[in-house]
Amino acid sequence: MASLEPIAVSAPPGRGRIAWRRYFSNPLLVTGTAIMSVVALLALLAPWTTSYDPYSIETLNRLQPPSGEHLFGTDQLGRDVFTRVVYGIRVSLLVGASVTAIAGAIGLLVGLASAYSPVCDHIFMRICDGLYAFPSILLAISIVAIMGPQTGNVILALTIVYIPSIARIVRSAALVVQEKTFIEGLRAQGAGVFRIMGLHMLPNVLSPLIVQASFVFAVSILTEASLSFLGAGIPAPEPSLGNLLLDGKNVIFKAWWMTVFPGVFIILMILGLNLLGDGLRDFLDPGAGSNNRFAKRKKAVRRRRRRSD
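The structure corresponding to this sequence follows.
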């Protein structure tokens, strides 16, 4: 009689391993993370990336083309363009991160309060409708013109502009959660406002909030560059990507590098943040978006291979 040997059963993969598999199977998320990681490291390591001072003027080296000594050339005052681009990326990331954090926190509170209380809903949403009546760039220019072109004022202006978009997203997600049966059960048990909003509604609105925050980050960087290009943003001689584009506008046919390289990095940051937002949406909601399309394509390829075999 044959002896019975124990069958080895492999343990199911943990949540962390499954999350990493989903992460690496999402090309949008991986690409967006890679782009933003490179840009962020370049900005954080700016003092060690370049040996030039972004403010030092050397008129003898003005409008030098890209070379081994100056990777991105020099501007009309002899300043190293690569150095100013790197420090400009730092300013753009600072403005974008600050606007996203402040607008996200305020928009979260406004959205939750609007979804829970009809009185707050009428007050806050009418204010948001009033802010929506103005184009974002014009509203930001008006606020900065009143308060003055400074970095803190630019952050405050963009925060006011983008609070309504986050508040509306949070309110829509919170209204869906509020109609659930367990919320009615909690109210029947006498649960307080802060318990319902903080422990049950807040975790269910974090996913759309994170996705919307990534897009607000990208739009904040683009709007700050637009304000600086129009002369209503970060004041000179502070290195900003918008200021660099403004400086290169008058000599674009003589020194193309002053416009091309700042514009390329603006495009890279916007592209990386948009890919990151799309990837986060697919990662947090696997049943929708491009991640679902990729899964369907893989299944279709497998079916074709089985038929051919």
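The chain has twelve helices and no strands.
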